[in-house]
Amino acid sequence: MTPDEALAQKGPTDGFLCPLSANTYGLDFLEFEIKDYDSGESIFHVKKDPEAGLPMLPDDIDPEIEKAVRTVKYTFPEKFLRFKTVRTALVFSVGPEPVPNFRMIERHYFKGDLIRSYDFNFGFCIPGSTNSWEAIYGVPEMTEKRIMDLMDSPFEMQSDSFYYVGDTLVMHNKAAYSYQG
């Protein structure tokens, strides 16, 4: 799948569009945080031991295990749906090869309909480096009806995250979201 095809996706994908072995650059996510930009309140933070490295998993991994490894289930407070601006911070490491034009396209769907689309360019990443990246972006305003629909439909908000080096898909992960009052 090319970046243009990812940007044209109308709904969440069935399964994963590249094997785990496509990550030939050794990209590894070490830390991720989501905050309300206006208040500074952190609503999600995860940090991996940087010495742990990437797990070694076979290409013929059981589909249910692969789904568990590559899918994150988030539970956010209702107020997240009312944030005007979100700040995300990511720390990731790069393997021994240079990574030209690292890019992430993330598509969010609710009950199969596209709600949000993000396209982030990380640019060039030095071999063997640990990198931090911060994004601050406005969140589309939602109606009260949409907020109530999201609250009443746990994990029906889903996303696909496509990671590219140049035009080559090297990672594909998914997420599902639940919102609680």
Outline of this structure?
This protein is mainly beta and 181 residues long.
The helix-and-strand class reads: mainly beta
> Which CATH-level-2 architecture?
Distorted Sandwich
The H-level CATH homologous superfamily, spelled out, is: GMP phosphodiesterase, delta subunit
Count of β-strands: 9
Helix content: 10-25%
- The amount of beta strand, in percent, is over 45%
CATH topology: Coagulation Factor XIII, Chain A, domain 1
Largest sheet: 5 strands, mixed
pLDDT averaged residue by residue: 93
Widest sheet: strand ordering? 3-9-8-5-6
CATH class bucket: Mainly Beta
Tally of separate helices: 3
Q: Tell me the count of domains.
A: 1
Point out poorly predicted stretches.
none
Describe the structure.
The chain has three helices and nine strands. With 181 residues, the chain is mainly beta. It has one domain (3-179): Coagulation Factor XIII, Chain A, domain 1. The radius of gyration is 16 Å and the shape is globular. 15% of the residues are buried. Belongs to the PDE6D/unc-119 family. Keywords: Lipid-binding, Protein transport, Transport. This is GMP phosphodiesterase delta subunit domain-containing protein.
Search tags:
48% strand; Coagulation Factor XIII, Chain A, domain 1; 3 helices; 181 residues; five-stranded mixed beta sheet; 12% helix; mainly beta; transport
Topology at a glance:
Blueprint: H1 3-7, E1 28-36, E2 42-47, H2 63-70, E3 71-77, E4 85-93, E5 99-110, E6 113-125, E7 130-138, H3 144-151, E8 157-165, E9 168-180
Parallel strand pairs: 3-9
Antiparallel strand pairs: 1-2, 1-4, 4-7, 5-6, 5-8, 8-9
Family: Belongs to the PDE6D/unc-119 family.
Domain GMP phosphodiesterase delta subunit: 22-179
Protein name: GMP phosphodiesterase delta subunit domain-containing protein
